[in-house]
Design brief:
The chain is an all-alpha fold. The longest helix is centred in the C-terminal third of the chain and has 22 residues. The chain is flat and about 50 Å long. One of its GO terms (molecular function) is structural constituent of ribosome.
Length: 65
Amino acid sequence: MPIEIKIRKNEPIDRAIRRMKKKLDRENIIKGVRANRYYEKPCEKRRRKNKVQAFTQMLRRRYAE
């Protein structure tokens, strides 16, 4: 799905680029491209996902009080 940014009337290019970057960030497009830049072994994917999951559970336990 292509990202489309329409430049508003009298809008500076800098502001339009900033809006485009925010939209890309919200949709995790840049993160996905960077993740797929290099091959990652299945065991490394599982290890990374387990590490993230353990971290989020630790945060939930810490702030559940």
